[in-house]
């Protein structure tokens, strides 16, 4: 499944914020090939063969990542790489499907991408 509908990544509601800081995410993501990360939190990550692209914004509060908004051509492998830096699978993450107005567990969302 590939999609371009906007999604937002959120920590489990009981956790409050992601277990990583904005600066940690910036440092890790900035080292990835074809990842362009701006100081305001906006980013673009493009596959070498241009088969997928993720665009988004990282938001933070109180020295921790609050949420990550994404649009693009979602593929399981790059999305999984991205969410691992946000603490998954140790941290429970949810995907807000913005246009549908619903939340799904990240594992379920990734499973749909692999189907």
Descriptive labels:
115 residues, globular, alpha+beta, seven-stranded antiparallel beta sheet
Protein described:
The protein has a 7-stranded antiparallel β-sheet with strand order 2-3-4-5-1-6-7. The protein contains 3 helices and 7 strands. The model has no long low-confidence stretch (mean pLDDT 93). Helix content is 23%, strand content 35%. The longest helix is centred in the first third of the chain and has 9 residues, at 22-30. It starts with 6 loop residues before the first strand and ends with a helix.
Annotate the secondary structure layout:
Layout: E1 7-11, H1 22-30, E2 35-37, E3 42-46, E4 53-61, E5 64-72, H2 76-84, E6 93-97, E7 102-105, H3 106-114
Antiparallel strand pairs: 1-5, 1-6, 2-3, 3-4, 4-5, 6-7
